[in-house]
C-alpha cells in the first residue's frame, strides 16, 4: 500500500460518519460536474462531426457529378464516326 493511501485511510478512520458522508457527497458532486462538462463537450464535438459529415457528403456528390461530366465528355469526344458538326 502506498504512503498516500495509508494516510488517506488514517484520515478516514478519524472522521465521523457524517463527515464521511459529507466527503462522499462532495466527491459525487465533483464527479457530476465533471460528467456534465464532458457531456457538453461531447455534444459539441458530435455537432461538429455531423457538420463535417454533411460537408464531406456534399463534396462527394460534387466530385461524382464532375466525374460523370468528364466521362460523358470523353465518350462524346471518342465516339467513332461522329463529327463535331453532327452533334
Automatic annotation (TrEMBL):
Phylogenetic classification of the source organism: Eukaryota, Metazoa, Chordata, Craniata, Vertebrata
Domain of life: Eukaryota
Protein name from the UniProt record: Uncharacterized protein
PANTHER family attached to this UniProt entry: RENAL CANCER DIFFERENTIATION GENE 1 PROTEIN
Amino acid at each position: 500500500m502506498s504512503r498516500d493511501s495509508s494516510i488517506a485511510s488514517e484520515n478516514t478512520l478519524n472522521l465521523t460518519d457524517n463527515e464521511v458522508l459529507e466527503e462522499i457527497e462532495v466527491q459525487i458532486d465533483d464527479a457530476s460536474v465533471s460528467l456534465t462538462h464532458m457531456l457538453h463537450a461531447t455534444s459539441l464535438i458530435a455537432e461538429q462531426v455531423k457538420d463535417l459529415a454533411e460537408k464531406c457528403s456534399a463534396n462527394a456528390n460534387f466530385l461524382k457529378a464532375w466525374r460523370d461530366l468528364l466521362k460523358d465528355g470523353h465518350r462524346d469526344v471518342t465516339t467513332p464516326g461522329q463529327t463535331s458538326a453532327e452533334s
